[in-house]
Amino acid sequence: MSGRASDTCRPKEEDRAVPGFTFFSALVFALLTSCNLPSPPPTERRPFEEEPEAARVRPRVAPGQSCTSRADCAGHQRCVQQRCSPYETSHRGELLAYAARAEAHGNSAMAVELYGAAIAAFEEDELPVPAEIVCELALQALSARNSDAEQETALHHAHRCVRESLIGSELREAVLQKVAATSYHRGLAPNAMDDEAPSSFLTDAPRAPLSGAIEVDIRRSRVGAETEDPNLLRAVRACFLRDWESSRRLRIHALFRVRTGRRLAETQAPPVEVETDDSVFSQCLRVHLEADAFPQAQPEAIRIRAELP
User: In the sheet where 272-275 sits, what is the strand order?
Assistant: First the structure.
């Protein structure tokens, strides 16, 4: 109907003659008689304004990200326990992944093989491989004592994990930390992680190990002796790095026998003597032990293992 009101919608002359009949009364009259009121003129949309429908569409997210409903998830996914999850899966692949997890703390080589079989099962079924399986394989492969060739393979698994997992996820962070600890000193080229398909990762010259990556185990024969003394741990790592500069050793085992001399005065601590081997590491740590590590020193044996993962 046109913007002009029809005759049936116009109040009669006798109605308009009623005292108090106003524009508001005419509006109520029109609504009660189901009339079509004049349409307001169309408003022009500003160029920078979005279409209302587009404004109501929420961005879809990838598998594994948090969600509140099915509408949050992209593609053929559903929201399960507040995470986007595919509708389809490879039951064979899932079973093999659980088998790999069961072997992870016992038989590392078997775990790597089972994770590889799980990934192959998803790919054979033409289904997306869950990022957690890819990252768990990378962690397992990086944790092994690898040759450079085996480390390259492990880094390829880590590269796939980093590119296919969500930024900030715990598994992704764990893989990156493991890559730094196990590969930085071997000559890891950081730029390779940005490449889509790098052929090699260990292309830089070897570097000094990261101090925080050095794993230390201290065993003392004296009951109740402190094994987590931060000063001692710092000294062990510093001496390991000094030894590495001359020998390039990645694993060190050393024995220190602590002896105490005769106290010179009641107010003084007894002098400490430490017997050990002639390696750079042992002699470096001997100086520390004799200087200030044990103000209440007693005779004992200390075994120290320091190595890179």
Answer: 215-220, 300-307, 251-260, 272-275
